[in-house]
Amino acid sequence: MQKIKVKSPIVEIDGDEMTRIMWKMVKDKLLLPYLDVNLAYYDLQLKNRDATDDKITLEAAEAIKTYGVGVKCATITPNKERMKEYNLKQEWPSPNGTIRAALDGTVFRAPILVKNIQPAVRSWKKPIHIGRHAYGDVYKNCEYRVPEAGKAELTFTNATGKELFRGTIQDFKGPGIIQGIHNTDKSISSFAKACFTYAYDQKLHVWFGAKDTISKTYDAQFRKIFEEEYQKNWKAKFEEAGLDYFFTLIDDAVARIMKAEGGMLWACKNYDGDVMSDMLGSAYGSLAMMTSVLVSPQGVYEFEASHGTIQKHYYKYLKGEKTSSNSMALIFAWTGCLRKRGELDKTPEVVEFAKKLEEAALETVESGVMTGDLMLVATSDPRNKQVTTEEFIAEVANNLQKKLA
Ligand code: NAP
Ligand code: MG
Question: Among residues 192, 207, 196, which one has the least CA distance to residue 264?
Fold first, then answer.
């Protein structure tokens, strides 16, 4: 069979542990036999980040800017234990954080729906997409353990050295904690733009929740920027498409989501998005049934799985034990990337290949062939059969072959 030509390069970012093992299987069994593709390869496994003093991560981000589309495997964010395990020079920062900052991007997540897995929330009929603001707040904080009684203040001095603000955070009577967080109008505004762009493209309503009744300056600024962006650039288009923008308090948003049908993009501040996307992932079945894409305001895209490197399964794999890790999110990271590449290159055959691979993967699960994480949540059926990591990918490959024949 003639391979399908992918016109422009794709940035491939390799990662760690079990996802690295699955990454290779997915490439070898599902992609490379069918595609003639030029991959700009960046190996972000922890050893290599350490060896390159993390320069490889910045190079990967630059490559995504150059080529426009990338796909990333999960990577270890080092902590104290990992420092020892890998004998690292430093506790390198999260590669996802570095890449997000370099691309000033917003992360969008959506569930992968299959007929035989009912969401834990009965009312959810359509996917709920989440847009997570990927800059600032507690993820770029300045914090301090207050050791004893004393006064904590918030001050702002402008670029010419003039103090414009001083306010008391707390007069401590004893030990405690303080934290300073920030955001910028520029970043919030790109976040709002990215959300409306994504939602309009996917024909979704936009919901945004914040706590502006309590945080009358900080959260209120988010609300104001969203409202201005909507009024100025989207209201007319949205109304014409039968879509709307809805602001409510974050706690009210959470309560309403539980009773909603789905079909919206839920725009979340950084921390809300971190927490709520995991809740959604698990309510839809498994962390491995979530797609994730980072979209920059310049229109470059990085596709990834939203779960981590599945460390526990990797240790089993290293001992030669059988694993049953789910590769759906990794497969969908590749199909998302190929579809976008095909759209940008105007090569419908590449888009079509991505669609067929997705169908093959969905049909595999719907036929009852699934990994352990899904066995726990799938509608019970005598056909359901738990398979290993390798067997699952082999079955997707079988189904794909039939579709391409
Ligand atoms: P994790 O890799 O997401 O896995 C947590 C648990 O979720 C697993 O032990 C497994 O549960 C289940 N799970 C997740 N993905 C699965 C899949 N594809 N198939 C089947 N089960 C799956 O989180 P972690 O173990 O806490 O983190 C491991 C490493 O990943 C950390 O070093 C962290 O820094 C990194 N991380 C990277 C990213 C990223 O690069 N995007 C994101 C998050 C975390 P059972 O053990 O019960 O089977
Ligand atoms: Mg999270």
Answer: 207
Instruction: Return the residue whose CA atom lies nearest to atom 12 of ligand 1.
Output: 310
**Residue 158 to residues 162, 185, 217, 253: CA-CA distances in angstroms?**
5, 16, 18, 36
79: Cβ contacts below 8 Å, ≥ 6 apart: 91
Give pLDDT, residue 206. 98
Kindly state if the Cβ of 96 falls inside 6 Å of ligand 1: yes
Are 178 and 144 in contact, with CB atoms under 8 Å apart?
Answer: yes
Q: Which residue puts its alpha carbon closest to atom 10 of ligand 1? A: 310
Give CA–CA dist 277/285, Å, rounded. 12
Burial track 362-383 (b if 16+ CB lie within 10 A, e otherwise): bbbbbebbbbbbbeebbeeeee
Q: Is pLDDT of 142 > 90?
A: yes
Q: Confidence class of residue 345 from pLDDT cuts 50, 70 and 90?
A: very high
Cβ distance 361 to 396 under 8 Å? yes
